Amino acid sequence: MLDDALNPAPSRTFLRPDGAPAGWAISREPVPYPEAVAAMERRVEQIAAGEAGELVWLLEHPPLYTAGVSAKPEDLLDPGRFPLFPTDRGGQITYHGPGQRVAYVMLDLRERGRDVRAFVRALEAWIIGALGEFNVEGEIRDGRVGVWVERKGPGFSREDKIAAIGVKLRRWVSFHGISLNVEPDLSHFGGIVPCGITEHGVTSLVDLGLPVGLDEADAALKASFERVFGPVAEADSPL
């Protein structure tokens, strides 16, 4: 994750000048985290070497926690509940599991403008646009990475996180990416301090009362991605 939560207006610098589509792959069964990372890293090296095209890979993981480069040991509240995997993405500790759509984003920023902050803004805009397909207003907050929704009711008002962003660049090719809570077991977040933030909660599309499954979320993510980053083409999983 990156610390700058900036205005998420889509940046047209992330349209490829040549209009080439990014690959769009979906894995239908949960993918073990080590296998996913290994496949992602292979693909990133191939993209950097000009041997493969860009790829957005949508998947689920079995229940697990990942610890980014800024992770604090005290943010793991229930050691042993689920496997914990160190990772070289930015950010702290987060959860992945069934019902959460993870999208690993392997884009060549040499072709899209070498601007890391603008890239993060574009990722935020992508998520916010996808949420808008369900009439959910996603927002960003200074000092808090990810996308949030404001929840109000009789006698209460709070902000819950619905999507996380954690990216890394190698030779100007991006990897890791985003996670959107569609219908995960939100109790699984109770074993950690998500992204080091204690004063806010987490939510999902289903928790907001929307009967949304992964297929519907994928369609919304695809439509919004094409608005922000340009066309996609169906592709095979990198496994």
Count of DSSP helices? 3
The separation of the N and C termini measures: 25 Å
**Global Rg:** 17 Å
SSE order:
EHEEEEEHEEEEEHE
Beta-strand content bin: 25-35%
Amount of helix: 10-25%
Poorly predicted runs: 1-12
Mean pLDDT: 90
Shape field: globular
User: Which class of secondary structure composition applies to the elements?
Assistant: alpha/beta
Please summarize the sheet with the most strands: 9 strands, mixed
How many strands in all?
12
What does this structure look like?
The radius of gyration is 17 Å and the shape is globular. 21% of the residues lie in helices and 29% in strands. The chain has helices at 33-48, 116-132, 214-229, and strands spanning 22-26, 55-59, 64-67, 84-86, 93-96, 100-106, 139-141, 144-153, 156-170, 173-181, 201-202, 232-234. With 239 residues, it is α/β, with parallel strands linked by helices. α2 (116-132) crosses α3. Strands 1, 2, 6, 7, 8, 9, 10, 11 and 12 form a 9-stranded mixed beta sheet that branches.
